[in-house]
Hints:
- By secondary structure, chain A is of the alpha+beta class.
- In chain A, 52% of the residues lie in helices and 15% in strands.
- Chain A contains eleven helices and nine strands.
- The relative contact order of chain A is 0.12.
- By secondary structure, chain B is of the alpha+beta class.
- Helix content of chain B is 39%, strand content 14%.
- In chain B, the strands form three sheets. Chain B has a four-stranded mixed β-sheet.
- The interface between A and B is large, with 41 and 47 residues.
Amino acid sequence: MLLQLTSDQELLRETTARFLDETVPPAELRRLRDDPVGFGDAWWKRGAELGWTSLLVSEDDGGGSISGRGLVDLSLIAYEFGRRAAPGPLVASSVVAAALSSASGARHTPVLARLLSGDAIATWCFAEPRPNDRLGAIALEIRRDGGDLVLSGVKRPVEAAVRASHLLVTGRTADGLAQVLVPADTPGVTIAPMQSVDLTRRFHVVTFDRVRVPVSALVGELGSADAQVERQLQQALVLLAAESVGAMQRGFDMTVDWAFDRYSFGRPLASYQAIKHRFADLKAWLEASHAIADAAAAAVDAGAGSDEAAELASVAKAYVGDAGAEVLHDCVQIHGGIGVTFEHDLHFFLRRLTVDRALCGTPAEHRVRIAGLLERRAEAA
Amino acid sequence: MATEDLEAFRRRARTFVRANLRPVGSAVMTVRSRVSDEEELAAVARDREVQRMLFDAGLAGVCVPREYGGQGLTPAHQRVLNEELAGFEFPSRIQVPTFAPCAAVLLEFGTEEQKQRHIPPMLRGEEIWMQFLSEPSGGSDVAGALTSAVRDGDGWLLSGSKVWTTGAWWSDWALCLARTDWDVAKHAGLTVFILPIHQPSIDVHRIEMLNGNREFCQEFLNEVRVPDGDRVGGVNDGWTVGTRWMFHERMSYNSPLVTFPTDAVHGVAGGASTLELARAAGRADDPRVRELIGEARALEVVWRELQHRVGVGIATGAMSSQASAVARVFHCGASMRQTTIAFDVAGAAGGAWTDDDGPLARAGTDFLMRQVACIGGGTTEMARNVVSERVLGMPRERTLDKDVAFRDVPRSPSAKR
């Protein structure tokens, strides 16, 4: 997380941190394990009042950032979510709100207003099942039929689809990508639950069986949404990285405390050089993760869609995904047996990191993307 | 005088850099094997020349106070200069250790006369400095120095041996840690001196490394006379100086006293050169190789951002002053990985090559030298101790040389106490 916050950013961060501490402590996370939605509607609305839903939305649309850098502000919230493995569709709903605000004119203002107030949530239908499950592979078909659009295909995993009033669906036309805002209760939309390692996040398979919506449901233009999809992806990558770093930081802090408190052979764990050197490595990877997550947030905020932003976002996703898993698994290792029990809290953070690492492209997929960007730059030079 | 604002400084730096310096692409500084002495000396001469040009343009010593020839500006100005230098030559041999740690130590502990005498010539490229710190008897345990300084009238006589000075054969001055009292505990009997390297009482010997490089040196000091006015800090107070010296050494390229283009990489190959290697090897389309290229680039970018974070963190007090050891630990692991990636991308040419293999020809020897980045400037293991003990506050390692006269400290298996 940023080393230097403005006083307004600090207030935003602190307010959310306190709210999450009070409302979703570990006991509540354990209770939500068996909840079909994973978060409460009234709870989400209170979060909206704290500013969670408005940061990526323009002032004209009723939103507004804290610092003039809305994605950086929101990454502070995502970080606090990670530190508590908090429930709620923060990433998916924020990305949709940003898209409706920037790419759709006034067409979707009523929906956006409900997202802002927290009365409704929306989610992004982006990734697809095999064989189209590679990062950026989109096969869902969007076809024009008179004054209508017809959607056919399958999306998964889609976060919080069971609670979403609207689905932002990314699909392919003959001319390129298109995005459509589909009410979740439209005939032909089926939502089936998936299982996940995360205790409070719910993911779904959403099937579109010749779903028919009016052309006015388009977000942006038919066939020319590629740049907008890239911006959404970069925003999602930034938020996932920030959240992952929060989870890493919390697991690391818990483990440092444990190393001082736990004694074996008459000494604290923290006095063994083998353990101290592990901690030094973890600290280095953790600070590196903070650094790259913050840099990615700043770059995507300044120019979502640019090559530089694309590179930093992918580097953040690739690096934090790998380093986060190493850090949190080492935290489990240093805890010993208690670290793999449900009764301990450490697993909340490993769970959150694990899901975030897998979403929106694996570390390996992002490394390949980075190579492509590097090649493009070398050719341009 | 009002501080020059960042944008005005940037315009001034940009104008100078583009009009006067040679574009080089991304600089990769590493210990290369195939550089002749003539080429090395020519490069040193050019570095001195470029340093002088920066000085004349008011761009040398950005964070050095004006009374010592610097600009008296802020670390943010230095970062702007580093950004504007991206893609251009810079005086790479006159940054570390001349400005950090040597100039940093002089600014902190030197007398007014010492600072006036040495800082301006450093900034003009006239004095290149070395650290006479490590000794053959031990690299990490620097406070265990055996080089002795004995009173001789109004001065001192220094005898012993120092090692791992990169480029001492073409350098000018050295900061030297020596033992002035053997009858007190290890840290209590040290004193720091400054001395010119090229003099009859110092024999500079060049060490051949396993890649054929001969830039590392060892010096033999045989009753080198040093006037008392060239002592830095108090007699037997050398560890007060030494602790900060080590701190500035760990700051190295993160130091606000050091000029280093933001796209330059020291010690290891970044993404662009890995891509270049892959192309030379005809493997740039291999998906496995592409992932490796992406990994090398990712590590390079993360390293750049971590350096920035640590620099800001230390400058603002948000991080421990020892946090540069955190960067050091990261860099060790990242550079090992990048070197291994470069070797694997080169394929069989990493093991056997011809003169036609271009950049592939150096992959094998670079791989042999992989651990250099984890040894020079303090080993990874020492940095891990610093991070765990000084940053995270974990218990210190137990040592057997604390409350005993240094002459009684065991120094080999045969030394029975």
